[in-house]
Design a protein that fits this description.
- The protein is mainly alpha-helical.
- The chain folds into two domains: about 60 residues, Orthogonal Bundle (Arc Repressor Mutant, subunit A); about 50 residues, Diphtheria Toxin Repressor, domain 2 (Orthogonal Bundle), CATH 1.10.60.
- It is about 70% helix and about 5% strand.
- The chain is built from six helices and two strands, in the order αααββααα.
- The protein has a two-stranded antiparallel ribbon.
- Helix 1 crosses helix 3, helix 1 crosses helix 4 and helix 2 crosses helix 3.
- About 25% of the residues are buried.
């Protein structure tokens, strides 16, 4: 499996979210969700397919592979937890979500796990 770029992670995350909202996902659904151009989406999907992160059937339906799902869930978890932490410490939801989106792709696994564990422990301590 090839190391995926930030833009690829964002596409996988969007595919994961769309998959939770609807049964079938096509390129146009990603266009509508992200606002990116159809050619940009098509190129990204081609690369994700070549790298083994998605499959596209004859009808144009997009499905995450096991590696694609793992990557998407990892990024989505980071996004949710970081957004929640930022909101909890007083950052506006708009900025919290935007900043989490920037950080989720670059933060190391070690740092994220420590932040997540600290946040989860502090939630338990205040209950």
């Amino acid at each position: 499996m090839i190391k995926i770029q930030e833009s690829g992670e964002m596409y996988l995350e969007n595919i994961l979210i769309l998959g939770r909202e609807q049964n079938h996902i096509r390129a146009i659904d990603i266009v509508n969700r992200t606002g990116y151009s159809k050619p940009s989406i098509s190129r990204a999907l081609k690369l994700l397919k070549e790298d083994g992160y998605i499959n596209i059937d004859k009808s144009g339906y997009i499905v995450l592979t096991e590696d694609g799902r793992k990557t998407a869930e990892k990024i989505y978890e980071r996004h949710k937890i970081l957004s929640d932490i930022f909101i909890k410490i007083g950052i506006s939801e708009e900025n919290a979500v935007a900043d989490a989106c920037k950080i989720e792709h670059d933060i190391s696994d070690e740092t994220f796990e420590k932040i997540k564990n600290y946040f989860n422990q502090s939630k338990k301590d205040t209950q």
